[in-house]
Fold:
Amino acid sequence: MEDRPAHRGTKRHARLRHNPRGPLLWVGDDEDWETARQKDQVLVCPETACDIELAAVHAPSNRYNPRFFRFKSASRICGHWPAGNRGGPETPQHDWVKARLARIARHQGYQATAEHWHTRADVYVHEPAFCLEVQLRPTQFADRTASRHHKGTEVCWFIRDGLDSKKSRQALFHGRGVRFRVVDRETHRPIEPWNEPGNYDLDRRAVIEVWGTVARLPRRGREPDPTATGPGVSWFTTGTLSGYQFLTEVLSGQRRWHPAGRIGNKTGLWVLDTDVAAYNEFRKRQQQHREQLARKAEEAGGPQLSGEPQTEPAEPTPHMPVSAIQRHETTREIAELEADTGPINKIGNLPRAAVPVYSSASRPRPRPRRRRWWQFWLLW
Ligand SMILES: [Zn+2]
Structure:
């Protein structure tokens, strides 16, 4: 096998013949691999209705492909689920994260397949159809997201901490992304369990943490005042969440992606439905306050000055082109976005406190003031 190109004629998935409905065994998952290597069982092609027999091969000398399934007989082969269709060898880190995401999804009762052949998803959750993509290197985010949507599948990009190109930031804030890193569950310091394959203790301690586009309610005591803020105020903050909780909320539909401009957010955010309800309540109070002010002004019968704006510019709507939304961004906001892409816990053990994404937009604006008759005289 060694002198052949690494992937040709091999697979990274297999199925147990006696358990055709069971989850696929995948080389990137240690437990799956243990099961696959057990004696006295027959492995077959992962594709339903294909019964070509496979054998699990462990080749430690093959640096990029130490585990694979090969055809048991050279005369009975098929082209399903080929190992080499993903464009280059997968890294141990990539495999580890995919295996963990699939395991979280399965723990929540979903059927999940890592490196799904038909969708090319890193992890495919079958029902509801959801593609989880793990991004360690720059890639064509937009194209792949568009092709997912075309097929009616939701997608979430998990973008590695430190992958900080223009494209990855665009994917993070405007293309259904979230930042992730792998940390020790106690100390929250980054660890690399994929570099110590047999170390089960390290593996148990490792958890995924996500941030960057994970929306939170305003901090207690720092909620914007509905009587002193304009319609374009940013209300949500962002924070850190465990990958387990995030994925649970996203797959169950409790936390959804809201593109820029929908809920006073200038970048896309993953927001809990209950938090959206709280935001809508805030907007209602804001509106009521403005109406109350307008009524009072009418009752007083004072003249309206044409030069004084009564309403503020509307916040970007989903119908506005992206470029128009981006024009609203100031240098300061971009600097805050940059800061938000950095690691969360530089020193402490606790998750970083939530940071308002757009504090410049939430600055209270002066309330329109009625003028006295003598002020009109001055204006003339
Ligand atoms: Zn087959």
